[in-house]
Amino acid sequence: MTPIAGHFSDRMGRQRIIVSSMAMTMVVLLGMAFAGRSSLFVILVAFLGFFLFAVRSVLQAWLLDSTPPSQGGTAIDILFGSQALGAAIGPVTGGVLTDHYGINVVFCFVAGTIVIANLFVFFTPTPDRRSAV
Question: What's the predicted TM-score (pTM) here?
């Protein structure tokens, strides 16, 4: 899915692809919360991978479009560092939420964080690529 997302981001704009992909990720996560132990859950996991991982390369491209060329490496390092921090904190947070409230709350919590992140993306100004070249 990543090459397809990259192609569409080149044609339609990076922000548009990121917003739509994150919105679909949220919908799939909410579906997973209500699917329970059904075969639908397995199908939704596959769709989650399509939308969740397809956006990563588009996000990196958008970051590099938005960053002055002399600071691209620093920007990517901050992105990767924040992703690593989230990957370290996320499982602990999910475990605590599961222990106290159940696994469905974790899916809803992650969907909520994606909604918040998507709002940030939606309201972020789109860089003018012509002036950067």
Answer: 0.78
